[in-house]
Amino acid sequence: MLYLNKFFGVYDYTIELTITVLFSIMIVIISGQVVFRYLFKIPMMWSAEMAQYIFIWIVYLGGAQAFLMNRHLVVDMFSRKIPDPYWKYLTLILYLMILIFLFFVFWLGLQYVGQNLYKPIFSVRWIRLGWVYASVPVGALFMVINILRVVLPSILAGKNSRIIEETRVDPTSVLRA
After folding, report:
1. pTM for the whole thing?
2. In whole angstroms, how far apart are CA 3 and each of 92, 105, 150, 159?
């Protein structure tokens, strides 16, 4: 178990570092575009497209990490009215549905990457469109890994994981703070 904790520590650090580096690159590209366009009157044609593609990677990697911290938006108007014993089962069913959906996203994403692997990006010819679309299956795979990291221990231990417990938040607690 110690090796698994070390592995996931490196795994989380690598994803968070990748997000940070990509975000920094995106800021530099967008700032460079503004400087070149308005100060030097020379537009960088590739900058907006590259920033969009980098942002796509940030979204998928960030979405995967958001599962660990329970940061995804939840509309729980009706689910708050469900009693606790049923709430726990409903949450597990919802995570199972998410895993099934992510399996299809992963599978279809791989097919899409295969179809576009050698197509160049319009403005930056040396970058292939398949690299951009690879964010979909990679992000889906990381989301599956992170969901399983949270849900499997609760199933194996016979109790609820922290994310299942934290999902049920008293809405008035925000007002009291």
Report:
1. 0.82
2. 27, 30, 17, 23
